[in-house]
Amino acid sequence: MTTNINQPDLLIDEIEVDDRPPMEKLPYWARATNPIVRRHLGLYWRTLPPEIEPILYITGGWIVLLLLGIIAPFVTDLATTVIVVSILVVPLAMMFYLRSLFSIAANSAAAMSDEIRNKTMPLLMSTPMSVDQIFLGKVAAAIWRKMDDLILIVQAAAIFGPPLIIMHYAGIFTLRDGGPITYILVVAFTIISLIRLVIEPIMFGMIGVAIGAFVPFRSTAMTSAVAMVAFYFLLSIMLQQLNLGYTVASMEAVQEATEATLNEANLRFAIAILQTIVIDLVLPILFPYLVIRGLIRVVGKHVQTL
Fold first, then answer.
1. Are 296 and 135 in contact (CB under 8 A)?
2. 178 belongs to a structural domain
3. 21 in Cβ contact with 118 (< 8 Å)
4. Residue 239: inside a domain
5. pLDDT tens digit string along 108-164?
6. 12-64, pLDDT tens digit by residue?
7. Is 26 inside a domain boundary?
8. Is 291 a domain residue?
9. Does this model's pTM top 0.70?
10. How many whole angstroms separate alpha carbon 231 and alpha carbon 246?
11. For the chain, what is the domain count?
């Protein structure tokens, strides 16, 4: 049987390889080459697109270790030996993250406030780009200014975040006693924490755009946007702490319950666990998405009346 060496490999031909430059893989509104984005960037337009693969590899490694821990718990115990480094690195990364969000919100508010004050918004709306792309383009410009910092923060969260997540929930979801569900929840918390680092800058940038659209005074708009960032994190921390206290109290009630009160205590603990899942898994993604979509609609209607 002879083989034609010039015959193309059908398997290779069927695989579609995305060989586009990294910048072109981003949505159009998020590209630094977008005219609206580049208009606000200045020299920052030379910032290189983020490298996503290392973050995916690191996160995938943690997920594999956690899933292996279902079968061999000692694997997770060895992996969490970096907890001391995590305690030092993650709070520092969170401080830089909060600083970056302040900058993104303030720059977005300033950019939109300038458009309203200079009455150039109707000119932008006459371009082929949609209102959504215009608003998100201003958000993207603010994010590109802090892109280098955000990438380092995401990398630090991917490397050192999971041990802190395990430690944070160790009092509620004990790894050895909780079974596979506990490991799966920790994996879910890890993934959600990284998604938050992507969607929250967009949300606060859009909040800054919304404030700038209604407050034409640059300094007032910037201050208000920064205050919204601080208020959001203060509220989220208070909500998590209150829920954590309620969950711990519910767990203690189960341990101290008698036969007559055991069913009621179990129901209370189940409600507490459900609240934890909603607060830590659902709200951090659903709330920013709803805020972004809602503000785009509200601000879009507002600027059309100018």
1. yes
2. yes
3. no
4. yes
5. 999 999 888 888 888 888 888 888 889 999 999 999 999 889 999 999 999 998 888
6. 444 555 566 667 778 888 888 888 888 888 776 676 777 888 899 999 998 88
7. no
8. yes
9. yes
10. 22
11. 1
